[in-house]
Write a structure and sequence with these properties.
By secondary structure, the protein is α+β, with helices and mostly antiparallel strands. The protein has three domains: about 55 residues, RNA-binding S4 domain (Structural Genomics Hypothetical 15.5 Kd Protein In mrcA-pckA Intergenic Region, Chain A), CATH 3.10.290; about 90 residues, Alpha-Beta Plaits (2-Layer Sandwich), CATH 3.30.70; about 80 residues, Alpha-Beta Plaits. The chain contains seven helices and 17 strands. The strands form four sheets. Strands 7, 8, 9, 10, 13, 14, 15, 16 and 17 form a nine-stranded mixed beta sheet that branches. A hairpin with a 4-residue loop joins strand 13 and strand 14. Helix 1 crosses helix 2 and helix 1 packs across helix 4. The longest helix has 9 residues. The protein binds uracil (URA).
């Protein structure tokens, strides 16, 4: 038996907090009865409806994908471009998964997909500060001063970015490019690209190599694997 708001969040209805509001507003029924009391426990066999629409209580699945370039990180694309969800659908994975956060169309690397809305909401919440490590190929020979600015925080769209970690991996003097590893835990739109832009080194290529304790070992671009139960447990405990 689990709390109603948790089951609703896991089914992707809304966050736990927003689900509580739906419950107290009298919009949720369990086996046909309106339930307004928070903390009501429900079982898998119970029929839960929100505004008369049954919620989807699927078995939870968790995948780690190595996103290739030119794929959209959402479940649908208005322009009909290939999405990360299409990659799984090709293998007839039937659960309605969606990505945990986003990578740009041209960014490659690690992306989690799940139908566990509760865990997804949690991981995306800034409070949990999941470390994400990227490798950026940037235009120009980056200076120590620029790396220090990135570490301390730079102004992006009127807000200062939180402290980051950086490591210069390589520079190519002839081609005038640098390869920099950067770890951040925020996830604003185009964050890494805008951070490098702010210090004067535009990103040419971006790859995310790790997400929290997870990395892409053994997973080729365009491939994915299921998370192991202990990995799911660890994510839930983060
Ligand atoms: N930062 C970016 O700029 N792009 C991404 O895809 C991810 C982080």
């Amino acid at each position: 038996m689990e709390r109603l708001q948790k089951v609703m969040a896991e089914a992707g209805v809304a966050s736990r907090r927003a689900s509580e509001k739906l419950i107290t507003a009298g919009r949720v029924t369990v086996n046909g009865e309106t339930v307004k009391k928070l903390g009501t426990k429900v079982a898998a066999k119970d029929k839960i409806e929100v505004d008369g629409v049954p919620i989807h209580q699927e078995k939870h699945v968790y995948y780690l994908l190595n996103k290739p370039r030119e794929v959209i990180s959402s479940a649908h694309d208005e322009k009909g471009r290939r999405t990360v969800v299409d990659i799984l659908k090709d293998d007839e994975i039937e659960e309605r998964v969606y990505p945990v956060g986003r990578l740009d169309y041209d960014t490659t690397g690690i992306l989690l997909l799940t139908n566990d809305g509760d865990l997804a909401n949690k991981l995306m919440h800034p409070k949990f500060e999941v470390n994400k490590t990227y490798v950026a190929k940037v235009k120009g020979l980056i200076t120590n001063d620029a790396l220090k600015q990135l570490r301390l925080g730079v102004k992006v769209d009127g807000h200062r970015t939180k402290p980051a970690k950086t490591r210069l991996k390589e520079t190519d003097r002839a081609k005038r490019i640098s390869i920099v590893q950067i770890t951040i835990h925020e996830g604003h739109y185009h964050q890494v690209k805008r951070m490098f832009e702010a210090v004067g080194y535009p990103v040419m290529k971006l790859h995310r190599e790790s997400y929290g304790f997870l990395n892409l070992q053994g997973v080729q671009p365009g491939d994915y694997r299921e998370l192991r139960p202990e990995e799911v447990k660890k994510l839930k405990g983060m």
